[in-house]
Amino acid sequence: MSTFSSGDRRGDAADLTELKDLVLLHAQAQGIPQADCAQLLRSITSDGAGTPTSWVDAWSAAAKRHLAADDHLLACRHYNMARFPFVDGPERAAALRECVTAFQSWATPHRITREEVRVGDGRMPFWLSAPPSARGGSGPALIVVGGIISIKEQWGELLPMARRLGMTVACAELPGVGESSVHYDRNAWRIFPALLDRLAELRGVSEAYVLAMSFGGNLAIRAAADDKRLRGICTVGAPISAFFTDQDWWPQLPGTTLRTLAHLTGHPVDELQERIADWALTDAELSQVDIPVRYVASARDEIIPAADPALVRRRIRDSEVLEHDDVHGSPQHLLETRLWLMKSLLSMRGATVTPAVLGLALNMRMLQNRIRGRRR
Fold this sequence. Notes:
Layout lengths: L12 H18 L3 H10 L11 H14 L3 H12 L6 H18 L5 E7 L2 E7 L12 E5 L16 H4 L2 E5 L18 H13 L4 E6 L1 H10 L5 E7 L5 H4 L9 H11 L3 H8 L6 H5 L5 E6 L8 H9 L3 E6 L9 H15 L4 H23 L1
Helix pairs in contact: 1-2, 3-4, 4-5, 14-15
C-alpha cells in the first residue's frame, strides 16, 4: 500500500469530476448503456462509500439490481465501476470480490476457467477460454491485459471468441491491479513469460499474440524484446519512453493516473516520476522487437505524449500507428479502434479475406466520421 501525502488524497469536487470523466471510457468499453451511466453519475456526490449517493454504494446498488435480474455480466461490470479506479479500502475491496463472483457465475456456462500463475513472490490469477477446437487443439494464445486501472473481468467478453478466432484466449491483469499480487516495477514485463509458461503447461501453447491496453502495452513491448514466443502486439495508448522521462509532461497528468501509479508501485506521488524514469523503453530494447506492433494513438491524449507513438514508428521495424483526433483511449472512436485491432490481429496470423472485409468496414466508418465533421 502506498504512502500518500495529504495533497495526494482524493475526495474534493475536482477529483470527483475527473473520476466521472475517466470512468466514461471504461463504462463504454464494457457496453454499459451511456444513458444509464450518465444518470448514475449524476446521482453520485462523493468518491467513497457509506451513503446512497457515494461512488461505491451507487454503483454497487445498480450491480445488485442486475444480479436480481439474473444478468451476471452486467452486474460484474457495475461492481467493476464500484471498485474503480483501485481498491483503497474495505468497501472497494468488497466490490471487487463481488465483481469476480458475478463474473464467475457468467463464465462457468461458457466453460471459462479461473487459473493462476506464480510470478516472483506474487500470484496472478487469470481467466482462460475453453479450447478453440472441439477436438482439443489449442491454437496460439491471445493474451489480453488492461492498463493500470482495468481488471481482467473488464475484457472477459473476449473469452468466448476463442473458437471463432481459433485461439486460446487468456485475460490477465497488470501487477497490483485487481487480484494480482505481483509487484509492479521495471521487471513487471516478466508476467508475459510466466503466463506463456503456464499456458504451455495447461494447453500446450507455444506462441501468443497480445492485445494490451495502455501500460499493458509498455510491458508487452518490453517482453517481446526478450521472449520470441510473442508473435504480435496490438496496443492502445501505451507509454513508451517520453511518458517516463519528460519532466515537463508530468505536471499536467490527471491526478487519478498519478494516484493509481502511486498505489501500484508504492512510491509517493511527489517521488513517482523520479522512481519510475528507468521504466522508459530504450532504443536498444525497441530495436530488438522484430514482430508486428500495431498502436492506436490519440492526438489529444492527456496521458501519453505524442513522442511515444512517434518513437514506435521510428524504432520498431514492423509498426503501424492509427491516430484518432481524441483523448486517451479514444472513447469517441471505439468502433473504429476495435475494427482496426481485429483486422490487425487477423492479418498478423496470415488471414486475408476477413481482414479485408474489416478494413472496408473501417474505411466506411472513418469516411462517415469525416462527413459528419464537415457538416458541423
